[in-house]
Write a structure and sequence with these properties.
Elements: E1 11-16, H1 30-39, E2 44-47, E3 50-51, E4 71-78, E5 91-94, H2 117-126, E6 130-133, H3 136-139, H4 143-148, E7 154-159, H5 160-166, H6 172-180, E8 186-190, E9 204-209, H7 214-222, E10 226-229, E11 234-239, E12 243-258, E13 263-277, E14 286-292, E15 298-300, E16 304-305
Parallel strand pairs: 1-2, 2-4, 3-4, 6-7, 7-8
Antiparallel strand pairs: 1-9, 4-5, 5-6, 9-10, 10-15, 11-12, 12-13, 12-14, 14-15, 14-16
Length: 312
Amino acid sequence: MPTSFFTTDGKFHRGNLHTHSTSSDGVLSPEEVCRRYQAEGYDFIALTDHFVGLFDYPITNTTTFHNDRFTTILGAELHTGTMENKHLWHIVAVGLPRDFTPPNAPHFRPVKCSETGASIAQRARDAGAFVAIAHPHWSGMSEADARTITAAHAVEIYNHGCVVDNDRGEGFVTLEHLFTEGRKLILIATDDAHFNTPDFFGGWVMVKATQNTPEALLAALKAGKFYSSTGPEINDIRLSKNSIEVDCSSAATIIVQGQGTSMATLHGKTMTTGQLSLERLSNSPWIRVTVIDRAGKRAWSNPIWLVRGQGI
């Protein structure tokens, strides 16, 4: 994924890509969910109610809640088929058309001979959606399961609701196993907010776009022009053949991770710029950046795919 978007025209827009309302199993109305996210300083959200027959297969229409400072992207959390552990698939699709054809998913229990996760993910992508594998740790997803979702753009690597409610909110192991196989996926942090616990305002994406519109945001998401965060900001990433420079908000640690155990780490107190050698990552086909502040909050870049041994 490119890093040049940090300094190109446009601005960063803060958004949540996984949220629920009373259109499915959330406790707040769609209007109130949108109002609260805007009041918290978000620029956009995707309301992704559970796309099952129990709730009449909702793709909740939030367009009436747009204003000159806040927008929404239509979407849903798709469920169908079964994974190896016999549980339903959970796939986040942001940017779905309202006439997206439902699967045979009348409730949250598996149905024999229903559509596969791979199939519905591909249909969602073909319909124009940004597709993400949701909370793989919480789902008990196997590596073989994840491998089947070839239409995914991203993996949910931080799910705030799962962190709050069951401490199973990460997805990096799944993501990096797919990296090892050459899958050029990106990563997202989300809330998965239902507002029945403190599962809101904890994880988000910062999307660089010239306009805060569904079309511009969706295009930027698909192009990987964003980073994910629970607090810190990433202001720029500059890559050379032998090193990487990261500009960020005040950080205690900056880490560059690569395939396997390869990494470079810089510790400090209030760092806003860090330069790290790529010597230990010279054989990795990809790298990604993590910024950690003194409170332990994190920001994550999307992976940068390298020409082996040649940096960029």
